[in-house]
Amino acid sequence: MFITSNSIPGGGIQLSDGGGGFWSELLVATPPSITTVAFTALAGTALFAALLYTTSRGRLKSPWSRRKRKHALTPRQWKSLFTSDGKPRDGGVKFLKKVRSGGIDPCIRAEVWPFLLGVYDLNSSTEEREIIRTQKRKEYEKFRRQCRRFLKRINECSKGTSETSCIEDSGSPTQESDSSSYEDVVSARESLSSEERSPDVEDSDDPSSALLEGDDGSGQATNTDASALNTESSDSDSSEDPEVIQASSSSEGREENDPDVPLKENISPSRTDLHPNQCSGENFATWQRIIRVDAVRANSEWIPYSPSQATVSELRACRAAEAVGLKDYDHLEPCRVFHAARLVAILEAYAVYDPEIGYCQGMSDLLSPIITVVTEDHEAFWCFVGFMRKARHNFRLDEVGIRRQLNIVSKIIKCKDSHLYRHLEKLQAEDCFFVYRMVVVLFRRELTFEQTICLWEVMWADQAAIRAGIGKSAWSRIRQRAPPTEDLLLYAIAASVLQKRKLILEKYSSTDEILRECNSMSGQLDVWKLLDDAHNLVVNLHDKIETPF
Question: Low complexity composition bias: which ranges (predicted)?
């Protein structure tokens, strides 16, 4: 069809398509000015729609922007989220969205965290949770009894027999990770250890520093098998609990298929019946020494956030320390002794629970906020297990998990800001090793205590949503905001680097300078601005960044 225009009397336009038709009839009586305006308007509308489509995703307000930020989940709202039999409504969707957009009121964190960290299923009833609670208390106590057996052997060996030969007699390990390779990784992470120490503990004057030197430090442990005096946990009375009926939850199937779960049995009852050889006594002795050093050196930032533990009596603190064989704490105030004892008890239990990881310096950083909020040791332990389900990769001896995460941060920066990435390449810093500390301890050193908790709660809500199968479809109901992601932390880390792009581009000419800048961010970051920027990165780059482990 050929369309031609011819002028006609009266100023109209005639289109010839070989026989008239629609166009001819439409435009014969249409003045040229009106036709031009109409086509221009259509073209403008189409262009505007295209621009809107391409830019709307980037301009979506995140739940953490100043205009959209909501209040934290309150006790009243928390209660309203449950049905009469104690099940979270709508599978926990509303609950997770609320936590994700505003965090949690401090007074209910101890109740909420077990749901976020997978201790309780989002479809469980009150009755089912009571069964699980009792069951997990017994499981935790089994780990503690095994720890006490190890400590008893170590204590007996220190009195005469060579510690190493005595411990080796207790069984051969099933894992092939010797203490020397472990010490190599510990040495590589010296910066984490030194920064973790309290300001009032000097390297050379700290009496507990000898424990790291291997001078029979394990002999510092006392025989705690006779009486478990950790009054904060339920070590002494768990054996009196009634027989527990094994409860099955809908989350077990998902956990078995989750690559981030340390072992197939994860939190099943059979996981507690560890064969003694599954955790080498020699490895445990190494972990025990380092755990005690880190526990005693833990800072006091947590004290304002746990008034009940801050006012613990000296007698109770000493009993807790005696129960785990903690020594050399005379320079600490009672609340810090009590905190250190709880760190020791739970970290030792975790080393038995997950002997592939055992203990590495930095893990105490992750546990400290948990025991500040959760006052029962067995609950705190299982919350920590849930936290470590993903974070455990940060502490593997081969550091595969760390390298994978640094690679993702590098990809995010490359996709978002090619100019900055090319500058990092020139400095041979494109591997983003300068954010190593942020990755290992999940921003614990760069944010204040409260900011850290806020960030972790949002991150846990994302991970809980993924475990529960709440994906893009459910999240689309809140205006197509960023979908839940396992790697929100990495987007936040990339955002923190991008916030410093001008400084990095104009003033820094070496990796060391960037590293110092990243390490000096402590107390300077706005966690909500960080989350807002991370949200924008997730919205725009989530589909481009592959994150399978």
Answer: 176-191
